[in-house]
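Please supply some protein, with fold tokens.
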Amino acid sequence: MTWWDEPKRRKSKKQRQKEKGRQSYSKGKAFEKKAYSFLGGKGFKVHKERIRFKGGEIDGFASKGGRHFAVEAKNTKQKVSAEAVRKLRKKIDRSAGFAKGGVIVSKTGFTRDAEREGKKLHIHTLKYKQRKRKSESWFF
């Protein structure tokens, strides 16, 4: 029997979890780049990407009109909950004064509670909308 005739071995649970983690990380990084471009279109200037500190990790920092914001990009299947908004507020408070407010960009949107919580905690909730590309045509 040669190596190509051997049946494929099933991956262990630990290997599958590790692979899923890598996929989630790369999916998150890709969406962050789209979110930064989206924020640029909204008038924000993105300064830093992925900042780690004692209180956790923030996806990035942006500014608009002289104010600095912590940016969190959410690429989830479900709408963003109020709990995610509160977590960002805690991260902002622990960020040693880097940011005064926050922005969450979500691909699927926000629950009503999350939008209310965002207004209360001074965190902007923005639903990501893909920019429409100009279609190329053979005709003028």
